[in-house]
Write the structure tokens for this entry.
Amino acid sequence: MLEVRDMHAYYGKSHILQGVNLNIAEGEIVALLGRNGVGRSTTCKAVMGDVEPNGSVRFKGQEIAGKKAYEIANLGIGYVPENRDIFPGLTTRQNLILGLKPGQKDGEGRWSMQNMFDMFENLDNRADVEASVLSGGEQQMLTMCRTLMGDPDLVMIDEPTEGLSPQMVQRVAELLQEIAGRGISTLLVEQKLDIALDIANRVYVMGHGHVVFEGTPQELKQRDDIRKEWLEV
Ligand SMILES: Nc1ncnc2c1ncn2[C@@H]1O[C@H](COP(=O)(O)OP(=O)(O)OP(=O)(O)O)[C@@H](O)[C@H]1O
Ligand SMILES: [Mg+2]
């Protein structure tokens, strides 16, 4: 589904991504782990075209490096950035509608608005209220649901559980499993090891600007050295 080869990215003169390699198969949940500042979010932004990538980014066999973010979104990549960018003055329902692709109608894709309301009672109860009154956890759900409304084949979700209660973390985990169950691929950027090891099929650990470990959750559990050097604070 996604194949990233020797991807580099810069902010001005700072060479942030220094040859990132990763791939994600159909329906796979892949976790991207690493400490603050190693370049996990920049990896998502470079795939999405929000930051210019050098190197190769292939999505469904097509080279997308150099394309614009809206073109990449239209090809089927959804991105949920780490700041929950809801539209606070619009209602929950209006926020969800904004997730549809140009020309797409509700119910045409794998997910419908009713689906979201069935999965998340809190969103249903607040369907016609301004999104600004939603709790942090509800806003996180809304951001994820809005992205799914556009019927992506791959979603990149940046730290969805940050600042959430254990109960909301559980709901996020359930949604991620529902996404995988529908055959959609997921790149999950996380800081919390538990959730990543629990639900990911494969794990990448990033060091400074490149991948330093790739394996299954089971393999990472056995690598005390990698966890000490690259993950624990
Ligand atoms: N817009 C920007 N301009 C300049 N430097 C940036 C910018 N955004 C990020 N950086 C720098 O790039 C590096 C990688 O940042 P990135 O956001 O990818 O990290 P991260 O792994 O997602 O970690 P975290 O989310 O915990 O900050 C950091 O050193 C950061 O300071
Ligand atoms: Mg980040």
